[in-house]
Amino acid sequence: MALINRGLLKTAAPLLCTRRFRGKINIQKPRKPHFGRQILIDISKPHFGPPKHLLPEIMKCEKIKDTIAKMEIDNPFERILANECLNWFNTSKMVVFLHVNSINMEDKTPVYASLKKNDMHLRTYGKKIVSMATTGTRYEAVNQLFTSHQNIIFGQPENAAKMFKILKKAPQLVVMAGIIEDKLLSKNELVEFSKLPNLDVARSQLCSVLQSAGSCLVGQLNQSQQILVSHLEKHISIQNSPTTEDNQTESIDTKEES
């Protein structure tokens, strides 16, 4: 037996036996945890609503639950953005709506800078912000143009030609429609509007048209007088023509007699 014990390995008996608690665990009155653990317990503690038997009958209706689930949370930052958007609509006489295809910021930044240099501003708003800003105003019809985040250009009508020239550098920005002087225009109408001359040239053209109309009116008023004068002169010439012929015949007769 001794030889067998020497040949086989023996397991070493542990000198210490560790336990988590030295004494018995007090289940009825457990010890309070330390401060960090207590904070973690308070944060992760689940929150249960009032019991169903304490709720009023109106809260137990399924339709009311659906309407409560659909209720939107009032976001003050969204209201600030909506007021900013409405202010842009009210202060800008030209508002152009863009459809944005895939474009990176390296291509979009030069367009933004060029528009800013020409007193035009490129802004990005979502459907919810535009709906909050335009609902109940004269711009409510533009909500049909928005499906997600889209870009809007705010400026003045005299810069329409410069805007189309700048947007040629970024074909990813497609013009859909615009508002000029509180009138909704399509893309083709915006292009035609951009080709119109400026105010000074239009005034000079108007002056030339008015001047030509005045000269035409004066000519029409004087036309009857001129026709009458020409007819009188012709009549006088006709009356004087027989006397000259008689004088010529008399002179011929005198010559023959002589």
Question: Nutshell version of this structure?
Answer:
Residues 239-258 are annotated as: Disordered. The protein is α+β, with helices and mostly antiparallel strands. It is built from nine helices and five strands.
Give a short account of the largest sheet.
5 strands, antiparallel
- The multimeric state of the shown protein is single chain
Euclidean distance between termini CA atoms: 200 Å
- The ordered H/E elements are HHHHEHEHEHEEHH
Region (Disordered): 239-258
Biased composition (Polar residues): 239-251
Protein name: Large ribosomal subunit protein uL10m
Keywords: Ribonucleoprotein, Ribosomal protein
Write the layout of secondary structure elements.
Layout: H1 2-7, H2 35-43, H3 62-70, H4 76-91, E1 94-100, H5 105-117, E2 121-125, H6 127-134, E3 150-155, H7 160-167, E4 173-180, E5 183-186, H8 187-194, H9 199-257
Antiparallel strand pairs: 1-3, 1-4, 2-3, 4-5
Organism: Bicyclus anynana (Squinting bush brown butterfly)
Biased composition (Polar residues): 239-251
Family: Belongs to the universal ribosomal protein uL10 family.
